[in-house]
Write a structure and sequence with these properties.
This protein is an alpha/beta fold and 347 residues long. Helix content is 44%, strand content 13%. The chain binds flavin mononucleotide.
Length: 347
C-alpha cells in the first residue's frame, strides 16, 4: 500500500521484496506476515493469540503453569476464535510436559514451542512423531547447531533487550553470531523490536521472521489490566531493567521488567535474607527459597489484578516504542508499512 511520497509501483515492488525476504518464515508458520507474537504468561491467551493470527501474524499460547485440562480448554477456545495457524509455548521444566505435548498433538496444534531450557529428547520425539513442528530457543551458536541436529524445525534467538526471562547477550550480537551459520532451519529473532525498519534489517541479515512480545502485551486484544497497558504507554526504554542479584551465592534469574516499588523491595528483601543467613538464622537452601518466593504470583498480580506497583511488570526495552494502546491488526500493519517504506525509499 503506497503512501503519498512513494509511487504505487515503488510501493508494490517494496512490498514484493519484503514478502520475498520473509517468505521462508511465512511458509513455516503458514501466515501472511512472518511476525510471531511471543508467548507471554497470563497475557497470551485466546483473545490475543487469535487476534494476532486473525491479523495475519502467528499467535502463541503461553501454557505457563497450566495443567493439561486447562491447556486443552485454552486451545479449543482459541481454535473457535480463529481458523488460522497458532502455536503453543510449553516450558520444559513443567512436571507434566509429556501430557501437555500430548494435549497439543491431540488438538492438532501445528507448532509447539519448547522454552525455558534444552528440550528433553522424549519431548522432541513426541512433538515430531505427532506431526507438529518444533520450535526451540537458543542462547548460543553451539547449542543452535546441536538443536538443529536433534531435529528442531525452527529456532528463536532472543536478545537481552526482551521482556521477561532473559539471557545475557543482546540481539545485535546474537544475530551476528548465529544468523550467518544456521541455514538448515528458519531462525526468528526477538528482543527489542518495535519498528518495521529494525525487522527489515534482521531479515536482510538472514532471519526468516521475528517475534515480538512487549508491543502486543499492550494491544487492545490483550486481556492485561488497563493499569498494565497504561504503564507500558508511559514507560521509556530505560525503565525496563533486568532484576538485580545482590550476592552471587544467591542467584537471581534475570527478568526484565519495569522498575517499581516491587523491584525496590526485592533488593531490600535480598539484603534482609542475606543478613539472616549470615546470622545463622536461615540455611543457604532456605535463604535461596525465600529469595525465589518473593516474586511468586507477581506477574499475575500485575497483568490481571493491575497492581503495577507491587507486581512484576515484565516488559522489554521496546516498551519505549509503545505510545498508545492499538489493535493487533494496526500494529502488524504499521510494522509492515515501516519495512515497506524503508525499502521503497531506497534508490
Ligand atoms: C509480560 C511478558 C511475559 C512473558 N512471558 C513469557 C513466557 O511465559 N514464556 C516465554 O517463552 N517468553 C515470555 N516472554 C518473552 C516473549 O515471548 C518475547 O520473546 C519477548 O517479549 C520479545 O521481546 P520484546 O519484549 O522486546 O518484544 C514474556 C514477555 C513479556 C513482555
Amino acid at each position: 500500500m503506497p503512501r503519498d511520497d512513494v509511487s504505487a509501483p515503488a510501493g508494490a515492488a517494496a512490498r514484493a521484496r519484503l514478502d520475498e525476504l520473509w517468505a521462508r518464515g511465512c511458509a513455516f508458520l503458514g501466515t501472511r506476515v512472518a511476525i510471531m507474537g511471543g508467548a507471554m504468561s497470563w497475557v497470551s491467551e485466546r483473545h490475543l493469540v487469535s487476534g494476532i493470527s486473525n491479523a495475519g501474524g502467528f499467535g502463541v499460547i503461553a501454557c505457563g503453569s497450566m495443567g493439561p485440562e486447562l491447556l486443552a480448554a485454552e486451545i479449543a477456545a482459541t481454535q473457535a476464535m480463529t481458523q488460522n495457524p497458532f502455536g503453543v509455548n510449553l516450558i520444559t521444566m513443567h512436571p507434566q510436559l509429556d501430557d501437555l505435548v500430548r494435549v497439543c498433538i491431540e488438538a492438532g496444534v501445528g507448532h509447539v514451542v519448547l522454552a525455558g531450557g534444552i528440550p528433553p529428547g522424549n519431548a522432541v520425539r513426541a512433538v515430531k512423531d505427532g506431526g507438529a513442528k518444533l520450535v526451540a530457543f537458543t542462547p548460543a551458536l553451539v547449542l543452535a547447531k546441536r538443536l538443529v541436529r536433534s531435529g528442531v524445525d525452527a529456532l528463536v534467538i532472543e536478545g537481552s533487550e526482551a521482556g521477561g526471562h532473559i539471557g545475557p547477550v543482546s540481539l545485535t550480537v546474537l544475530a551476528q553470531e548465529i544468523l550467518p551459520h544456521i541455514k538448515d532451519v528458519p531462525v526468528f529473532v526477538a528482543g527489542g523490536l518495535g519498528r518495521g525498519e529494525a525487522i527489515l534489517s534482521y531479515l536482510e541479515m538472514g532471519a526468516s521472521g521475528v517475534q515480538l512480545g512487549t508491543r502486543f502485551a499492550a494491544a487492545t486484544e490483550s486481556i492485561a489490566h488497563e493499569n498494565f497497558k497504561r504503564a507500558f504507554v508511559r514507560a521509556n526504554a530505560r525503565d525496563a531493567l533486568p532484576s538485580i542479584q545482590l550476592d552471587e551465592r544467591f542467584p537471581v534469574i534475570p527478568v526484565r521488567g519495569l522498575v517499581n516499588a516491587g523491584t525496590k523491595r526485592f533488593l531490600e528483601h535480598q539484603a534482609l535474607t542475606l543478613a539472616r543467613f549470615q546470622a545463622g538464622e536461615l540455611s543457604k537452601e532456605a535463604a535461596q527459597l525465600d529469595i525465589e518466593h518473593f516474586w511468586a504470583g507477581a506477574l499475575r498480580r500485575a497483568v490481571i489484578d493491575g497492581d503495577v506497583e507491587n507486581g512484576s511488570v515484565m516488559a522489554g526495552q521496546s516498551v519505549g516504542l509503545v505510545t498508545s494502546v492499538q489493535g493487533v491488526a494496526e500494529i502488524i500493519e504499521e510494522l509492515t508499512q515501516q519495512a515497506v517504506m524503508a525499502l521503497a525509499a531506497r534508490r
